[in-house]
Amino acid sequence: MDTRPEPPASGTAPGAFSDSPADEEKRRGVRQMKVIATGLLLFVALVYGLAEWARSSGAGAWAGYVAAAAEAGMVGALADWFAVTALFTRPLGLPIPHTAIIPTKKDTLGRTLGDFVGENFLSSHVVRTRLRAVGVSRRLGTWLEQPANADRVTSEISTVLRGALTVLRDADVQAVVGEAITRRANAQEIAPGIGKLLGRIVDDGAHRKVVDLVIVRAREWLDLHRDAVLAAVEGGAPGWTPRFVDRRVGERVYKEIVRFVTEMRDMPQHPARDAVDRFLADFARDLRTDPDTRARVERLKGDILEREEVQELIASAWDAVRAMVVAAADDERSELRLRTRAGLLSLGARLVRDERLRGKIDGWLEEAAVHVVTSYRDEITALITDTVAGWDAEQTSRKIEANIGRDLQFIRINGTVVGALAGLLIYTVAHAFGA
Q1: What are 324-336's pLDDT values in tens digits?
Q2: Could you tell me the pTM of the whole model?
Q3: Is the Membrane keyword given for this protein (predicted)?
């Protein structure tokens, strides 16, 4: 049996539209809610009648409270019924002014209800359902699994990357990189971190290899620059001392320095080594705790960062990175392109086989699509609003009622409940004050 809706008759107006199964389902929901709301009205009417009968029969004070609540509930239910009904038709067929608002003011409502029309045609549920039915992530994975497609995407990515790096102005990027690095360095105090690291090095004894290297190099330097040491000592001697005395003093000083450095080199337990250990440990502690030391380190850091050579070094990092990336993007056998291609192939395989990953990506796509629909609904619904203006008035009213009528019936239910509570409260307060 063919269940497809019949096409409109030839005499149907161009702006008319046929009801969809979804509309029929919504109308069934509206009818169900109307039955519930009307049933609640009949229920409070019955309660009111029984309560009045009980009060007239001397049942007690409680009957008055129940009657007041039921009476106010009926008023609220009737008032909200009238308000809801007046949107779509004339209540009881009476020509009451300002009723049947939607049929009589369709064009105006078509403009002011643009958001509602957008919800009807561009709702998040519709977008999500459609995307899930398409299965974008699975299709993408199947496509990316093909090596030729992965090569194509890799080539396109390389072209876009190369173009972006070409368009960017070096001076602007260098300024941004330099400012970012400098700001980050200035914002972060480095002395405590250096002190903590130095303390660990000293505790582990890792610094001793550096001390050994310095001592060995110092001993080698003394052997190679004996004349320089002697000349320095002789040059610092008073002018009135004889030359040979200066020479003897210089040789003596040189021998003592050599002896001292040699002993430090050959004696692991040399007192000078212990002094170095104590100095480094004290310095590490001061870096962490001493305000003056930390302040001096920060000043030194600032002086270094402000030096022109350092700023040029930071700025030149962009040139190196750009040249490296451009060269890699141009070379089909570069590690960058090979890894990109391998990553695309791996992504395609995972999208085909990993349901959890597909769920995440589909969720991201759905959120993005919903964001676009939500953000640009006004622009999209401008066309829909014009279309609504050409619809038949009665059909438009039916369409809108099918979509929001169920919620409007909740207004009737809420009016009944709130009215009953308000009536009970008013009756209670009145009796409390002796009214």
Answers
A1: 887 887 888 888 8
A2: 0.38
A3: yes
